[in-house]
Design brief:
Two copies of one chain form a homodimer. In chain A, 42% of the residues lie in helices and 24% in strands. The first copy, chain A, contains nine helices and twelve strands. Chain A has two domains: 7-145, Jelly Rolls, CATH 2.60.120; 148-228, Arc Repressor Mutant, subunit A (Orthogonal Bundle), CATH 1.10.10. In chain A, strands 1-8-3-6 form a four-stranded antiparallel sheet, with no helix packed on it. In chain A, strands 2-7-4-5 form a four-stranded antiparallel sheet. In chain A, strands 9-10-12-11 form a four-stranded antiparallel sheet. The first copy, chain A, is globular and about 55 Å long. By secondary structure, chain A is an alpha+beta fold. The A-B interface holds A 63, 65, 69, 71, 73, 85, 87-90, 94-95, 125-126, 128-129, 131-132, 134-136, 138-143, 145-147, 186, 189 and B 63, 65, 69, 71, 73, 85, 87-90, 94-95, 125-126, 128-129, 131-132, 134-136, 138-143, 145-147, 186, 189. Chain A binds a DNA duplex through helix 8.
Chain lengths: 233, 233
DNA sequence: GGCAGAATTTGCGCTGGCGCAAACTCGGGG
DNA sequence: CCCCGAGTTTGCGCCAGCGCAAATTCTGCC
């Protein structure tokens, strides 16, 4: 394996508080891998052996129900840490991680976590802050599913995707990885049919443009209105 | 304030890995308070000043939407740590904590967290394990809300309550704090009307008995069947 | 012991969104 | 360049569960 270059991580918030030497040291214990689109980085319920940082690409975190239905827990963007079972004392991964596009990933063996967290406190702290954010986001999602209509939830989901992974184009903010109606349905607790109908309606009104596995938000503001308003359908 | 007795916490899993001396030391930096039923230990969005351990009672963790609707994030039982904003680098509480019955609570100033976590690694590790469990539970709840019918969700919620806080009586497993139909609705994303109808139906069939702010599970097994089965209404 | 208010039950009508099915469209591999 | 299959759109019928409303039953307080 080639030595990993510090430039891989020096720009990422997760590592920014570390000195160059520390960054180099942290990298020395990591291994890097590529994952082709639609391959799994790890699978739900399997023994957690490593934790990861996404260097390039997008990852879909998916939980599968006992009867095989899938729910998308979240998307991971570049620079984010994921699969942090070790930091939370878990022995298995509670979900699967699947490359949404070709990805580059750094991995550390779980056994290294205690030492790394001790040696680089800022790294540990950032990780736990991330966990805290995800817990809150997940609870927010429970709230949305409890109190909002499907239309509001899908609007919220698109806005979140646009913010987190949106790429500005001349026609609007494009979600920069392939995402199907089915994916959006699995993020919002509805069916691909309902998502399709909503996107069609919004496209008619010029709020978005969408194609096969592709959504571009043209008018975020009107989407915000939809996400807040129980009526105004 | 009277000195806190080590017997308060020595039986709790959170502290069991600590030596008696360590337990005493940990207690020295804590303060204990009582909260009457329906009073708040902390409020959503306010500055997080402390983290807590519940010594006696039951606590409801509630999130309120911008338009005032409430969702119950979880119930805290005796011995559990809660309000751990500090450990996750948050500056405000993401939810409110309200005493479901009269409660006794230990509190530590947030500023103490780093030192305590360093000094008592087992304490920190247990806390993070708890956070990990809650994250997973919350994601499970998202899954349930995405894929299950209301009847299944309410059955799941009752089973969870019975397991976590159930008290065995001669007539079944009684949830040992006052819980209204409205509360159950806020846990499962439905309305008190629907909960009431379900409980009535289950009572007719002898699966539960229920009264005002009270539910006793008589036949957990049939409740499990209901929680798993999309039909068999 | 009685009363006011809270919690619960139950009826009824309506509808958002699901399930099913069929048609259509697009993009990539052969 | 054409074909195949995945992804998407759209129509249609139905029903779980919500919203509203009213009646009923507790229960804690005075």
């Amino acid at each position: 394996m080639a030595a990993l270059d510090r430039s891989l991580i020096s720009r990422l918030p997760l590592f920014r508080e570390l000195t160059p030497d520390e960054q180099t040291e942290l990298l020395r214990s990591a291994r890097s891998s590529r994952y082709a689109k639609d391959t799994a980085i790890f699978e739900q319920e399997t023994d957690a052996h490593s934790f990861f940082v996404l260097i390039a690409g997008h990852i879909r975190v998916v939980r599968t129900t006992p009867d095989g239905q899938q729910v998308i827990a979240r998307y991971i963007s570049e620079g984010e840490i994921f699969g942090v079972a070790a930091a939370l004392g878990r022995t298995t991964y509670p979900a699967s991680a699947v490359a949404a596009v070709d990805c580059v990933v750094l991995a550390w063996a779980n056994a290294l976590w205690p030492e790394l967290a001790r040696r680089f406190p800022a790294f540990g702290a950032t990780t736990y802050r991330t966990v805290g954010n995800r817990l809150q986001e997940t609870q927010t999602r429970v709230m949305e599913m409890s109190t909002e209509q499907v239309e509001q939830r899908v609007a919220h989901a698109l806005l979140r995707l646009a913010n987190q992974t949106g790429r500005k184009t001349d026609s609007g903010i494009e979600i920069d990885f392939p995402i199907s109606r089915q994916d959006i349905a699995e993020m919002t607790g509805t069916t691909l049919h309902t998502v399709s109908r909503l996107l069609s309606k919004w496209e008619e009104r010029g709020i978005i443009v969408s194609g096969r596995q592709k959504v571009t938000v043209k008018d975020p503001h009107r989407l915000v209105v939809l996400s807040e308003n129980r009526d105004k359908g």
